[in-house]
Design brief:
Family: Belongs to the bacterial solute-binding protein 2 family.
Distance between the termini: 50 Å
InterPro entries: Peripla_BP_I, SBP_2_dom
Keywords: Signal
CATH architecture of the largest domain: 3-Layer(aba) Sandwich
Number of helices: 13
Pfam families: Peripla_BP_4
Shape: globular
Radius of gyration: 20 Å
Strand order of the largest sheet: 1-12-6-5-4-2-3
CATH topology of the largest domain: Rossmann fold
Number of domains: 2
GO cellular component, one term: cell envelope
Amino acid sequence: MKRLLLSAVVSAWLCTTAQAAELSPLKSDSEPDRTDWSQLDTRYGPMPKADKSLKIGGVSKTLTNEYWRLLGQGYKNAAQRYGVIVEYQAAANEADQLGQLSIAETMIAQGFSGLLVSPQTDINLEPALQTATSRQIPVVNVNDAVMPNAPHYVGNVQKDNGVRVAQWFIQHKPQGGKLAVIEGQPGVYAAGQRTRGFKETIALHNTFNIVASVPANWSREQAYNAASTILQQHPDLIGFYANNDTMALGVVEAVRALNKADQVAVLGTDGISDAYASIKRGELTGTVDSFPVLTGEVAMDVMLRLIGGQTISRVVATPQALITKDNAEAFSTKDNEKLRQLLMAH
């Protein structure tokens, strides 16, 4: 039954693709029609006054991962600021593609004014996008899977996550050595781009050798198991790059269990609070923070500009920064305005 339902999703996606031929397939990292998050006011003017009756739906991947909870907090912060209503829902887990699709379709049927969606995969919400588009309901794809037919995307440059981590290894481990990658979910644009950015940058320096690159599907447990196996096969490994912090923290557990914390550096991506705490304790080496609360605020800003009639570029790029023990304290500020200023100066 599940295979039949997934086949229906794919069929609907193909129909959407045919109907959206005027839009080239979206590749958010390289899309030329883009605006930096800090330039919205400069380029498009002030926010239009929002109708207080607007009801915006947020459709997330899961609430078990702190990143997605923080993204929802960003939606709520902005909704409160502009006086609109937001309802934030998520699938049961990061593999519940049909459950997430059902949430999006229900919101459309209930007459929501716009949808902010973070798809499980690049195609599982395409049927909902097709329906919303036919009803002139604006849809913004918000990190990290990318729907090919998405008219608007808000998020960071995914490939740059991996590039930044690779640059850390090149700078801090100039003698080189064996490295491993713990990938996210296969078929998700963000996971592929993060891994590609890391591998392409590392390949420019022949002192490094990537000896393993395996998916752990965003799971801490799967990452722990994968890292344990890799460390047993390559006891002289010097570092891991994990496609998100949940997996990176699983890798940290594996490294510590084998008493290799002094030998093996571990870097992740997302900037969740557990990652910051681990960095400050001297366990996790670093993370590429993509600032989910701020991303959620920017995405709501973009949605309300679209509803207000502004023509916004297809991609609005949000900030990121490599966090290590050297700057973790500064970037963990709870002062939102101070963080914005810090990022603009970064």
